[in-house]
């Protein structure tokens, strides 16, 4: 297997040892030890995989030791250990869009380019283009996407019916429908979404793409001051400023926005599909029986939602167990395993599971159809693909807040683009 370099960010507070009662296998070829060390985050995907690890151990003779952390703890763990060049982590669950570029640039990842194509039955070609793009770096595959998200339009069927409206398919239709519903329903917003500077960037991204823009252009330069980007800022801001909740603050993240929608106080809401059960579960949502899902309304460039890998599996370049680590990843990401995990409500990155009726049987039909569209047309990132992701999100988010509060978002976009370019230049030194 080809294992070349490409190479950041956790304190260990919890570890779960699995399979300790099984007979230990003998050390593998090349001096590999009998225990594979897998680091995972707290997630439904992790819970399912942990329950099945004894099957992997029995099948392969490889003992698996799992360390599991919350997101912040995981970042601390990686920051301490990977920076120190540890060989005590073999398989690593990571966030491609948040720390993937940094890990790759620092050489923390083994190159999986040959591994992903060695087994035709495992079928790397089954993986969606957007997530694959985000788990690659400088022409090398550095991770296998395991969990995906797409942005979709949540809406109230009852409010649209009462207003005599069809589901908006364009941004202009969304603006008009939000305006009409707010005017006809006192106390109900036409539209709600994230407003906090950093948090809003991911959901704004689909507006940016649909207007024909992006955060960075093909030459690697900042591009949030283009006419397309400025139009996207203006539209997102207008929807919330003019048709959003009364006295809306600029510190709304998804829990607050979702609460407004599920309490029946908004007609439209753009958000990640992965949160849909918050809206459809009657124990949490007053509008569970009337929620619908549709693709992001089209802008001048069409309907282009993000289709991103929120989590992926990679192999530590310093691991002495790269062959066994790949066996684990291959097993955990097989078509059969991906299908089973998706049926439990965790969206996968394989196209085949979305085309399989059993793969979408647990999803609302209109949501499954919406996701199918997003996976085909989707863009593989929902934030700037940089090393300093938090700083970039703060910069890009500023024109969003200015637009929401009624300021000059064009001027804010110009200023933000200059600051963002400085960040890019600094990273490229």
From TrEMBL:
> Which UniProt key words apply to this protein?
Signal
Asked whether the UniProt record includes Nucleotidyltransferase among its keywords, one would answer: no
Name the Gene3D superfamilies for this protein: Periplasmic binding protein-like II (3.40.190.10)
Q: Name one Pfam family in it.
A: SBP_bac_1
* Keyword hit for Signal: yes
Q: Where are the transmembrane segments?
A: none
Q: Which domain of life is it from?
A: Bacteria
Alphabetical list of InterPro entries matching this protein: Bact_solute-bd_prot1, SBP
Q: Where is the signal peptide?
A: 1-23
PANTHER family according to UniProt = ARABINOSE-BINDING PROTEIN-RELATED (PTHR43649), DIACETYLCHITOBIOSE BINDING PROTEIN DASA (PTHR43649:SF12)
Q: What is this protein called?
A: Sugar ABC transporter substrate-binding protein
Q: Which organism is it from?
A: Rhodoglobus aureus
């Amino acid at each position: 297997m080809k294992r070349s370099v490409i190479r950041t960010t956790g304190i260990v507070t919890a570890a779960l040892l699995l399979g300790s009662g099984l007979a230990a296998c003998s050390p593998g070829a090349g001096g590999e030890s009998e225990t594979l060390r897998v680091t995972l985050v707290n997630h439904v995907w992790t819970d399912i995989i942990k329950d099945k690890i004894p099957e992997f151990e029995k099948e392969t003779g490889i003992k698996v030791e799992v360390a599991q952390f919350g997101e912040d703890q995981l970042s601390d763990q990686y920051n301490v250990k990977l920076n120190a060049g540890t060989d005590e982590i073999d398989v690593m669950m990571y966030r491609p869009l948040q720390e993937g570029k940094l890990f790759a640039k620092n050489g923390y990842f083994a190159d999986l380019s040959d591994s992903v194509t060695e087994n035709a039955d495992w079928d790397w070609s089954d993986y969606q283009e957007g997530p694959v793009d985000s788990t690659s770096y400088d022409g090398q595959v550095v991770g296998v996407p395991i969990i995906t998200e797409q942005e979709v339009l949540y809406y109230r069927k009852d409010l649209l019916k009462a207003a005599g409206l069809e589901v908006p398919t364009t941004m202009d239709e969304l603006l008009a429908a939000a305006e009409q519903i707010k005017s006809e329903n006192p106390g109900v917003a036409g539209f709600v979404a994230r407003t906090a500077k950093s948090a809003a960037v991911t959901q704004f991204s689909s507006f940016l793409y649909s207007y024909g823009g992006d955060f960075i252009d093909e030459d690697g330069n900042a591009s949030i001051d283009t006419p397309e980007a400025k139009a996207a800022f203006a539209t997102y801001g207008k929807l919330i400023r003019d048709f959003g909740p009364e006295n809306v603050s600029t510190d709304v993240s998804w829990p607050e926005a979702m609460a407004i929608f599920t309490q029946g106080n908004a007609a439209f809401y753009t958000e990640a599909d992965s949160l849909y059960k918050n809206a459809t579960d009657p124990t949490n949502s007053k509008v569970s029986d009337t929620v619908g899902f549709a693709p992001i309304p089209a802008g001048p460039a069409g309907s282009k939602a993000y289709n991103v890998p929120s989590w992926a599996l990679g192999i530590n370049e310093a691991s002495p167990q790269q062959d066994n680590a790949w066996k684990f990843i291959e097993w955990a990401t097989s078509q059969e395993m991906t299908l089973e995990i998706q049926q439990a409500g965790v969206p996968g990155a394989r196209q085949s599971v979305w085309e399989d009726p059993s793969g979408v049987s647990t999803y609302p039909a209109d949501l499954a159809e919406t996701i199918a569209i997003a996976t085909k047309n989707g863009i593989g990132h929902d934030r700037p693909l940089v090393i300093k992701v938090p700083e970039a999100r703060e910069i890009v988010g500023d024109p969003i807040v200015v637009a929401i509060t009624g300021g000059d978002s064009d001027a804010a976009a110009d200023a933000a683009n200059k600051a963002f370019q400085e960040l890019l230049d600094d990273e490229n030194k």
